[in-house]
Amino acid sequence: MKKAFRLFSILFLVVAATACDSSVYNKMKEIPDSKWSMDYPIKFDVEISDTTTLFDFFVLLRHNTSYAYNNVYFFITSTTPSDSITCDTVEFILADPDGNWIGNGSGYLKSHEILISRKFRFPSEGLYSFEFQQAMRDTVLDGISDIGIKIKPSPL
């Protein structure tokens, strides 16, 4: 009986956690062997049908504690349904000045949810593409294990 109750409790928590996520898009992609090459861009295609809601856009990043730097630079290329392309260079700080990781997680992996755009509207319906390429001096970054994006309605 205890085993069945425990299984039910775990199942309930998983369902409750996923039901509370109001994201339009929330996806992570694994970087093979936690070695991110400059020649390995990571692309996310997002179908947007709502042009009236204000959204927040987050970059999700997971790295291990053997990552050698306190930051990471990305090139982010965005393509709209009308094939308009913009490219931005962004820096994310992953550790404080003393070298302590600022991400969530204990042990070997640290996770970051970094807000990069707040309260924006998509100008038109259709397929948007977001491509991430690492822009550090090293051609291969050792220790970046996953990258993702999350798009969710802005709180009022």
Short account of what is shown:
This protein has 156 residues and is mainly beta.
Verbal overview:
The chain has one helix at residues 2-19, and strands at residues 25-30, 35-37, 42-48, 55-64, 71-79, 85-93, 109-120, 126-134, 140-142, 144-153. Mean pLDDT is 88; it is low at 2-19. It has a single domain, classed as Jelly Rolls (Sandwich), CATH 2.60.120. It is 12% helix and 50% strand. A hairpin with a 5-residue loop joins β5 and β6 (85-93). It has 156 residues and is mostly beta strands. The strands form 3 sheets. The protein has a 4-stranded antiparallel beta sheet, with no helix packed on it. Strands 3-8-5-6 form a 4-stranded antiparallel beta sheet, with no helix packed on it.
Keywords:
156 residues; mainly beta; Jelly Rolls; four-stranded antiparallel sheet; 1 helix; 10 strands; disordered N terminus
Count of strand segments: 10
Structural class by SSE content? mainly beta
Helical run tally: 1
The radius of gyration is 18 Å
On the 0 to 100 scale, the average pLDDT is: 88
Shape: globular
Q: What portion of residues belong to β-strands?
A: over 45%
Helix percentage: 10-25%
What count of structural domains? 1
Which fold name is given in CATH as the topology? Jelly Rolls
- Could you tell me how far the N terminus lies from the C terminus, measured between alpha carbons in angstroms? 44 Å
Question: Low-confidence segments, ≥5 residues, pLDDT <50?
Answer: 2-19
Strand order of the largest sheet: 1-10-4-7
